[in-house]
């Protein structure tokens, strides 16, 4: 007896394609007692507002019928949205559908919206007895956050499994669509392990892999034995279909063979998967970006080249009269290291023409942030012109630290259809760049080591208006990720005036973040999921 | 005996200011048996992610204490977030807090997130017996969506009140933060009336008034007698504190004195309130916008002038070589009608300089959408330069029809910190403009009557690439507002190829809408609340 774990990359909305992937994987696993697919496998994840469309759900139902008929002799458990026909509550269930030899059984999720707010809009929670009989074994079926509990912040050990235990299941199954969160893999494994320890049942966990817009699903499906060790596991960031013999689950063998990659290796793989799927799933292959000679655009270029192929990423160097010589030479060095195409398009003439055009209205007012922004926006105009003319997607190169404090120009360097490192703090931008260079120089070392500057006026440095990044990031981390109060942050030893300045900047710049493209999300609190009001009274 | 309805404009996050407003209103209503404030009055609505901050909730608690001590002899019922100390479930309750002579009683909302998705993230629903004894009367206390039921789409008659009826309340109270939805006021009144009819109890409904970011709360609080007629009501779009004698509730008098303004009068008032509060609550007073001579920017200019004062809205006319003569003359005529400042800044020089700058890369490729977008983006650069230099907020002038099909340039005419008419279809843009001109010409009639054109190439008309707006809007309405399938829309008599083209455009342009500023929301389905995936398989 064996169970098959199908860790696949599904495409949101592509029911036809997903159905074929499911059937192909099922047909590979002849003789399996159960082929397990991830949460929302059939429609892709996250489906968001597609769930409002009746005919989208009709399509899902038809696809389930086809899977059932084409895989009649293969027992399948697959995540899908299912209509709630009770007339009460939200229109759908987030379900795991079991199909085998004409039988169909629907298992429904209970714990909704813990990690994804949109769920509560469409799905009704369910308390049903989710027990599936497979041969002589009883499987307790849980979906995604059913493995968490929603008592406060301390998300450990499911209370959903509590409810299923009176039925005496032999084994627990969890199908999930858990997005990548940096340095979270061990926590996730611990949550599952605690469940195994508490209930003394083996557990099968099947996650999605692949990215959709801002969500990166990292795979890493695994199987726990009775002894609460991981007895087998699937890799992170790869599609795999694997058969697991049931004996393995019952064995007391210690076989903790799931290696969790290091922080920066994981982050690198996650961002590359995020870029690759963003392009592939929209039918694009080529990217363009502005390469300033600074570290943010250098990192984004390197990631994009790894995701799309060096030849598919075009760099545009846009020096102004305030650019230093090394900004061009560092950028050129990177493009050459990667062997990617690049152009140098100076912005001086456009800057002067626009200044002349504005002069009758500005009437000799002094150079200020207006003229700084003007240069950043001319660059965006040129980049978007290139993007339009050649059908490339413009990548945004803002990092999380500058997005937090508004150190960026709206419609200028904040442009782009995908924010690649908008959920990566500047200190991690440095570390990830060093990690990329661990064996040989890809990103020029001078780019990594020089003093950060926007180069929008003479001798400008980031630290003219911001604290050093390690201090800034530490304050931001406490405020944004840990929801700490200004007082609590000061109590940790930070300067009070600085803490208040940083928090004021974060809140005053919410209006800019409202207009940012999807951000590849790699933390608990990406700005793209941080729904905040704007206004001067927001502390 | 009397009850006081306090329909006030609260500021999100300004606990201090809101507290003072609450105290001032309470102190005005000497002798009232109950002073009723709206849902979330204390923290303003919608508070969104502020609710994650512990110290924000601490502030709310302190403010409640101060209200209680300064209004000890005034019985108050006020909406506020309250901590859930049970250790189970979400961290807060959405509550109505009753305070009088040292007593405090907390009534909790049950039906969460029907109209506001964020609620489910922070609030735990509660089944408590929400009965308040006021003198010899029992009041059933409900909050917001407690008056709806969540059985499918047919939102009528609350099932929350069912649960409270065994306690035999004499009267039902509903405190709400219901946002303005165009032509929805009658539906809202009917829902409340059905409740009164079913339970044969008078009902007091107190709504918020005022705007916060994309939400416009329209007031219109009201009191139903036993007979299910509105026996008294408060105006829409205005702050009012009003005492209602209890006898009125018990009387069988028919006094349906709540006049619901016409569609376009309501829409006009809502948008003006939305603009005014967006500026006031951020501490800004001046707006700038690009005035093209077309109807969208003319309408936005007129609304902004009404909201902020004519002298506080600056128009910038940005003719290109493809602009018609009337585009400047129509725009000038509007600025003169309003007496608002305006500048004419031609973009020709900047356009040519940028074309020259790009020519080594574009190598003689023909004029296409790139050059059209280039002009729109140069305009945005100039508008943002003005905004930066003089501290004005740039208003976005896109309408819902063009936002739907992507007929707009990202970082071009899609710029601006507030989208004023982004939830108003083009056909309503015309009708609202005619309504504004009902007594005398404010918006030049030529602007309303000429053929719409983006004027980005010679002799361009919107209908070159789009169907006539009445047809386009009818298809969009079915798809966006009614969630109809392509087949169902075709079955209504629309051309199949056209329907599929429009729907393809809607989905293909989701990436643009992801980068739009907050949109003043006036419909059930504003794009700012329509969370959709992007990708080529989204139908």
Describe this structure as you would to a colleague.
Two copies of one chain form a homodimer. Chain A folds into two domains: 2-260, Carbon-nitrogen hydrolase (Nitrilase/N-carbamoyl-D-aminoacid amidohydrolase); 267-461 and 509-529, Rossmann fold. Chain A is α/β, with parallel strands linked by helices and 539 residues long. In chain A, helix 7 crosses helix 8 (295-308) and helix 7 crosses helix 13 (426-436). In chain A, the strands form four sheets. Chain A has a six-stranded mixed β-sheet with strand order 5-4-3-2-1-14. Chain A has a six-stranded mixed β-sheet with strand order 6-7-8-9-12-13. In chain A, strand 6 and strand 7 form a beta hairpin. Chain A is built from 18 helices and 19 strands. Chains A and B meet through helix 2, helix 10, helix 11 and helix 16 of A and helix 2, helix 10, helix 11 and helix 16 of B.
